[in-house]
Amino acid sequence: METGTWQFEPHTSEVRIRVEGTDLAELFEEAGYALAEVMLGESPPEPPSGAEEEHLTLEAADTEALLVDWLNELISRSDMKKRVYTHVVVDTLAERKLHARIRGFTPEVLKTAVKAATFHGLEIREHEDRFIAFIVLDV
Amino acid sequence: MEPTVEVQQQPTPRLRQVGPALYELDAGFREDMRVPARIVADEELLQKMAQDRSIVQLINVTTLPGIQGFAIGMPDMHEGYGFPVGGVAGTRLPDGVISPGGIGFDINCGVRLLSTGLRHDDVRDVIPALAHDLARSIPTGFGRHGRLALNPEQVDRVLTEGVPYVVCNLGMGTEDDLPSIESGGHLPAAAAARVSLRARERGHDQLGTLGGGNHFIELQRVDRILDAAAAKAFGLFEGQLTILIHTGSRGLGHQVCTDAVREMDRALAREGLRLVDRQLACAPFSSPEGQAYYAAMCAAANFAWSNRQVLTHRVREVFGRRLGADVWPRIVYDVAHNIAKVEEYGGQRLCVHRKGATRAFGPGNPELPEAWRQVGQPVFIPGSMGTCSFVLAGRSESRSVSFSSACHGAGRQLSRAAAKRQVVGAELRKELNARGIIVECPSNAELAEEAPTAYKDVERVVDAVETAGIARKVAKLVPLAVLKG
Q1: CA–CA dist B146, B178 (Å, integer)
Q2: Where along chain B do its domains lie?
Q3: Fewer CB atoms near the end CB (10 Å): N or C, chain A?
Q4: Which CATH number fits the domain B12-413+455-484, given the four candidates 3.40.50.720, 3.90.1860.10, 3.40.50.1000, 3.40.800.20?
Q5: E strand or H helix at B438
Q6: What ipTM does this complex have?
């Protein structure tokens, strides 16, 4: 898992993340990796080679809602399957719809339990060469 | 140029004092405010609030359609999402809104205090074994489910019937427990059918689990009695061994909130409505979306009370094994601090949102058990790990001051990252051990995030609640052992 295109911003009780990507698909992938870092700490390992690949398709009201849905999908699957997803590939991402493949593993200890991704202060900004998003996670 | 995060100018200078430990910001401060913002605090706590976005978030709450009186910030208020943590709002029924963000993802996160008939001095040597046994009996690590896996019908019955089902059908506890739980551990407006399959799937094996974050079970000693008559009525005495349980509705509640925010956000978009903060997504209480969420929230609340009931059963099992079957920790009370309740104020029915705030009914309220109805409702204020907690009793004045609401804890003052920069988890563990406090927590990082310095001074917070006339102090409790998720 690569690191470095997200950073944690100040927030008194929750986790606020600033994420970058050269396109929307990469932005969403990086947001997924940032979530894994919140849950596991720095440089989480790749899942074992034989880890099950899960496919998911999401549709939302707009791109911001899609980002919230994407992270909440990862969070709820983590809770149900007792896995943290450290390998995420967003195959297709249109304005309101995405398809992705994810793989994860069950860690011994979770650094931080994440309850949900929120709309609070949510922004996706488009710049010349990249997208930047700010998102707050309830932890 | 790198984009920057804009931190809005804090409006602290315009707050005016309207009573003891009570400040208000007039509704004219911002055009979209419908009512004033009211804050329970002293000057030092106000200054701390001004250091993050909590006051701006409270002002945002004042814009909710149908809000009555004022949006209220408790003295432990700090920045959250949508509502600040420590925020209270009452909206007029039937057309005022209900907002899932005003309750939070951890629906009916709350606190339950158990008392024993034991003096700490008499069982001092057994505390390490009790703590160890509790850690073994209660799943805390990731990937560990509860010892109780429910089938779909049982999940439905927990959601619909709450604690009475856990007691009468699962055999965990006795009917004597029920009056000592807010709402008897059962909100009748619950509808299991309004809880999604995913939420039920997340919750089916989570009854009897603590979860992470700031959730805990703490063994405590009653350090000081501050109101003898009230303490006697609550069954508390100096030197007594008590147990405090803090947890909520786990993944089931998180999913209920996630589902509802998504639905309400879509409904608002369909109608072309925009809110000052999208996380304040809401719907009129009487609308189909509002009613569906309220029924699901009540079901998740029943699940949370049931979770604390199963944990109580585990605590009783451990105490029975270690100290004999006649040692039966009794529930002093169980209060929610993330919930919406329908209550009446000035002849008007309101949907009172409490996000990180505790109900604090004064003496004589018919919802309180007869045994101590004339004392006022017990309110539990856990301090940070290693400091102290308080038992308070609600006062009648709380109705007019704060829609019968008090704070819910000390309130964070440092972000988790800042806490970790200042505190090394392993050293904190040693320091607490050196003070005689046993810590059972698998993660040093999480321990550092919950360090005492990350929180405000709980004594100052409780003093503000008392000064404002919301509740009076009854007892001070100090920690002996803490089990964290």
Answers
A1: 23
A2: 12-413+455-484
A3: N
A4: 3.90.1860.10
A5: strand B438-440
A6: 0.93
Residue count of chain B: 485
Query: What is the pLDDT averaged over residues B92-117?
Result: 97
**C-alpha to C-alpha distances, B308 to A110, B53, B103, B209, B279, nearest whole angstrom:** 22, 32, 18, 9, 28
Quote the pLDDT of residue B2: 35
CA B129 to chain centre: 28
Helix (H, G, I), strand (E, B) or coil at B26: coil
Distance from CA of B437 to the nearest CA of A (A): 22
Which pLDDT value is given to residue A130? 93
Pick the range with the lowest mean pLDDT from A7-11, A30-34, B331-335. A7-11
Comparing CA positions, the residue from B407, B314, B332, B322 lying closest to residue B369 is: B332
| CA–CA distance, A25 with A133 (Å, rounded to integer) | 12
Q: Is the pLDDT of residue B22 over 70?
A: yes
* Cα–Cα distance measured from residue B407 to residue B465, given in angstroms and rounded to the nearest whole number: 7
* Cα angle for residues B213, A134, B415 (degrees, 5° grid): 35
Q: Which of B51, B57, B81 to probe by mutation at the A interface, max A CB count within 10 Å?
A: B81
For B454, phi and psi rounded to 5 degrees?
Answer: -75, -10
DSSP state of B15: -
Question: Lowest-pLDDT range, A43-57, B2-16, B317-331, B333-347?
Answer: B2-16
Decide if B254 is catalytic. Answer: no
pLDDT > 50? residue B140: yes
Return d(Cα B473, Cα B226) in angstroms, integer: 6
- CA of B56 vs chain A CAs: smallest distance (Å): 12
DSSP states along A28-72: HHHHHHHHHHHHH-SSPPPPPTTPPPEEEEEE-SSHHHHHHHHHH
d(CA B351, CA B333): 23
Picking from B254, B257, B446, the nearest residue to A111 by CB comes out as: B446
- Among residues 24-53 of chain B, which lie with CB inside 8 Å of chain A? 52
| Domain definitions of chain A by residue range | 6-138
Centroid of chain to Cα A120:
16
Cβ contact, residue pair A14, B485, below 8 Å = no
List the one residue out of B263, B290, B311, B412 whose CA is nearest residue B353.
B290
Assess whether pLDDT exceeds 50 at residue B285: yes
Topology of the domain comprising A6-138: Archease, Possible Chaperone; Chain: A; domain 1 (3.55.10)
